[in-house]
Amino acid sequence: MNRDTALKLVEEYTQNKNLIKHMLAVEAAMRAYARKFNEDEDLWGITGLVHDFDYEKMGTEHPSEWGYEILRKNGAGEEIIQAIKGHADRDNPASRPTLMDKTLFAVDELTGFIVACALPRPDQISGLQIKSIKKRLKDKSFARGVDREHVRMGCEELDIELDDHLTTILEAMQGIKDSLGLK
């Protein structure tokens, strides 16, 4: 599967512009980690891009066999399917045997959290700092939908410090801020 095919699937099956932006943010974070870990940047990026493409259609059944079949028909390999399955099985680290699986899980929720941190700021994501994100992570009333335990698990599975993890994701998202509709 190439990026053009992946993006067409996202656009075909996703109407919500914020969900599309989320998938673009996860793609950017996955590409950043692929470079960091000397892995296949296109494979990792495409995995991030399509990881939620069936969410609107399947809702609580996401990710779904229906979605996996569409991905397979469009050239996605089993490593992409496995990573998508693993990111959804949040409380079971054994479902994420590969580094790509672990990374998708680790970046998924944090991209949305970083957007939530950026939106109220006048300079949005451009001037957002790690200390501000960490402060918001400690505030359980902020972005309640983000499970802080999953953030901790993601760092643990990648064997990376929270500051380094946040820096990698934030810089990746800052690099595509226009695509995310952010300043």
Automatic annotation (TrEMBL):
Where are the annotated coiled coils located? Answer: none
Q: Which SUPFAM superfamilies match?
A: HD-domain/PDEase-like (SSF109604)
**Residue ranges of the HD domain?**
20-110
InterPro entries associated with the record: HD_domain
Fetch the Pfam families from UniProt. HD
Record PANTHER family: METAL DEPENDENT PHOSPHOHYDROLASE, METAL-DEPENDENT PHOSPHOHYDROLASE
Q: What is this protein called?
A: HD domain-containing protein
Record organism: Candidatus Dojkabacteria bacterium
